[in-house]
Amino acid sequence: MKSIRLFLIAVILATITLFNFIAALQGYRSSLLEAERLFDTQMMETAEFIADLYSENLLAPVDHAGNRVFQVWKNGELKAYSANAPIMAIAPLLPGFNFSNFDGYRWRTVARYDNQKQLWVLVAERTDRRYSLSENLILESFIPILMGLPVVGLLIWFIVSQGLKPLRTLADELGKKQPDDLSPLCFDAPKQELEQIVYSTNLLMGRLESSLNREKQFASDAAHELRTPISVLKVQLYNIAQLLPDEDSNLPELTETVDRLEHLVEQILVLYRTTPDQYSANFTRIDMGILTEEVLAQEYAQFEDKNQTLEFRGKPYVLSGDRFAITTLLQNLLSNASKYTPCGGHINVKVCDEQGDIVLTVEDSGPGIPLDEYQSVFERFYRSRGDRHNSGESGCGLGLAIVKHIVELHHAEITIAPSSFESGTAFRIRFPKQKTSMDT
Q1: For the domain 284-437, what is the CATH code?
Q2: Does 4-158 carry CATH code 3.30.450?
Q3: Which residue blocks in 164-308 are alpha helix, DSSP H?
Q4: What Cα–Cα distance (Å) separates residue 116 from each residue in 46, 74, 386?
Q5: DSSP of 288-327, one letter per residue?
Q6: What is the pLDDT of residue 440?
Q7: What is the Cα–Cα distance from 125 to 112, expressed in whole angstroms?
Q8: CATH topology of domain 192-273
Q9: What is the domain partition of the chain in residue ranges?
Q10: What's the confidence (pLDDT) of residue 238?
């Protein structure tokens, strides 16, 4: 059971119900014994009453109605009996209580000897009727207990709810915090049981804030500090290139390595900027169709170098988002598609409206991604073990991780599927309905 309140109510109510059941069972048994004692007392009093009323002039049988039968025996002869009594003795002529069977029923009997009149009085009562009467009386006393269980349940619910109110207040305070809010909890006069929780939570938040600040400072400082030596290195490589002969093959490899290092530094900076719990997005109205066309124009050179066919279909659709982040998302998706699509391959980009959502699709005719790696490719520094990894293209493994962060930043959804080509991958990003259409 996920709810603490429901768990406590269920356990307490079950405990009370079990206790009442055991108490009722014990009370039922005790009440039956007491009822038996009372009925036996009444039977003995009835026998005494009959003995007092009996006289030699009494005619037999006596017209007697009720659940009891009686007989009067004297000197071995039946002197008087009720109309519903048999002519044989209904019980042994021994003082005390016993059981007997006659007339198709089980009877409780009592025999009393009157010394003064020297006669036996036998009285019998049907056991089924006396048990039925006893049970009815006992069950009527238990009905209020059963009917009171719902009231007890409501009372328990109210008490438990009041007892858990401070915990619910604490949960509300935690729920109001933004992802980047690591300030201590302001919880006035917490209950004794919550003091340790509040203290530990504030202590944890303080540690998290210190850790995040250190990570932020390190990533920012490292990336910025690396920019300067990389820029100097590129200048030095350019100067060296003027001194070396054109047929030297070492310099292009070195230049490519420096470019890869510069790309890695830039991706680290972008990754930090687009982390949802650290990034303060400046959302504006963005025309997704026009922005996609602009990014395609800026990145067209890389497609042209590999003689790749680029096709774009889309209309102007406006959404609310961060322009820099969306531009970075498009650049990384296009760069990823171009990188793993062979020369002369095909890349399709589409912006459309599906049930009010804006959907961006980028698909290529590359080797594709294995199905079991669809989620892994969004992890930082992950490189696929499939054909894409063996394509010979360099990469830092951060491009799709950045795309994933930007998608989360905009509360969108990204999925991977096989492309419409014979091979390849299609990335689909569905932006929610926080936009207006500008179809023309």
Answers
A1: 3.30.565.10
A2: yes
A3: 165-176, 192-243, 250-273, 288-298, 300-305
A4: 17, 12, 116
A5: HHHHHHHHHHHTHHHHHHTT-EEEEEE--EEEEE-HHHHH
A6: 36
A7: 15
A8: Helix Hairpins (1.10.287)
A9: 4-158, 192-273, 284-437
A10: 77
Q: What is the sign, positive or negative, of the torsion defined by CA atoms of 221, 226, 231, 236? A: positive
pLDDT value, residue 330? 92
Q: Is 141 helix (H, G, I), strand (E, B) or coil?
A: helix
- Write down the pLDDT at residue 439: 42
Residues of the chain with pLDDT under 70: 1-2, 55-66, 137-139, 141-142, 179-180, 187-191, 193, 216, 219-220, 223-224, 246-250, 263, 267-282, 383-396, 434-440
Q: Would you call 407 exposed, middle or buried from its count of C-beta atoms within 10 A (0-12, 13-18, 19+)? A: buried
CA–CA dist 92, 175 (Å, integer): 83
3-state secondary structure of 184: coil
pLDDT computed for residue 49 by the predictor: 86
Query: What distance lies between CA 405 and its chain's CA centroid?
Result: 26
Q: What is the pTM of this model?
A: 0.48
CB-CB contact of 102 with 3 (8 Å): no
Tell me what pLDDT residue 65 has.
Answer: 52
- What does DSSP say about strands 77-81 and 435-437: parallel, antiparallel, or unpaired? unpaired
Distance CA 122, CA 80 (A): 10
